[in-house]
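Why does this matter for the project? Reviewers at the last site visit asked to see concrete outputs rather than summary tables. In response, this paragraph embeds two records directly. Each consists of the residue sequence and, immediately after it, the corresponding structure tokens. Nothing has been edited or filtered.
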Amino acid sequence: MKAVSEILDEINLKILKACEKSGRKRDDVEIIAVTKTHGPEVVQEAWDSGLTIIGENKVQEAAWKQPLCASGPEWHLIGHLQRNKVRPALELFSCFHSVDSIELIKRIQGIAEETGNRPSILLEVNVSGERSKSGLNPKDVFAAVECALCSPNITLEGFMTMAPFVPKEKIEETRPVFASLRNIRDKVENEFRITLPRLSMGMSNDYEIAVEEGATWLRLGTVLFGERPKVKLNRSVDAGDAGESGEGGGIYDRVLD
């Protein structure tokens, strides 16, 4: 497999072409290196290649991985966040992409106020309406925005969504999903007279379309690092604000299948 730096050059060229096609500046788009199930060595390679934001799906995976990694990258949680995992998550991540309810906003605000944290958040919107995906119903977005803006320890940066996975020959089917999220953002900005600069949308399969429709953060994993290794996380100590699913507190060992 090619080095990450070589792959990144190819991706950057595609992003540049998508920006030019849509009249955008290349500097408006950043890549989040999604290192789910990859080890600290992949985080290091991403950092060495110039990628400064690491995206993780699970709280417990970041908990064992971060201490083994360089201190430079910024860490974002891009996976679903359960309310009983907020406390440990605030210790690990500066931004949460997947805030999907008013209850979760209130939970983040309450613990952030208690601990002195000031995280950034994105509101996840289930634009496609797929039952398998989490996220706010579009009709509930305005109420969630109002709640976030009334939370002094939280900075609302924008929105996140996931398009349905489709084969490459049908990739244009993802465009309406990304366009809809951009339209939601524009309506919120107009209604509340605020600026929300971040749209987290586009992954390995569809990032070029996402860029054309306004994405500012691309969540890229497989296209950068190849297929993910299979891992199991064995909890050896139960501690902290943990709960079901083995997430939250505790100490975990990473075991490759």
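We now turn to the second protein, recorded in exactly the same manner.
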Amino acid sequence: MAAKRKQKRTKTPDTMGPSQWRLQHGDFTPPIREADPETGRPVQHRRAVDTLGMMLANGTITQEMHDAGATFRSLFYVAALDGVTRSALLRLPGGADDDLSERSLDARRRVAAALNALGGHDSAAGSCAWYVVGLEMSVREWAMRQGWGGRPVPPPQAQGMLVATLSVLAGHFGLAGRQRAA
């Protein structure tokens, strides 16, 4: 006796939501419906949850560490460093200082001071701040890219490096009070 064939069920895709591929790379906030500023048509937006936001929600970092990361990220964008990788912060080769505003130059000085407090560009904390906090690279991607002795950094260890980096940044920006040993 032959078995009956089952028909394949096809799921109707959720056209308004993120794809399955995108969902595996991070969470999203609930959808927000608003009017498109150009056409006036209703649209639905979802914001991706960033690494620092997820770590704060999980209790991995404190509010001061999150604020320090947000401060560094905003300085990074004002300094227009998102397209520059590991170059001199106060002077760009072949460029003139006239191209940058005073606000951008001040932000570059503050980013340079923060990176010096972390040990410089080449240190683990400086690299973590530059790529994970400034360029918003995922911790896992940074861990696979950053390696010492030809071996990548394990993701749990990379997350610990990020926590330590944020702690130093919180102290540097004056967001975390010094605690005395008991």
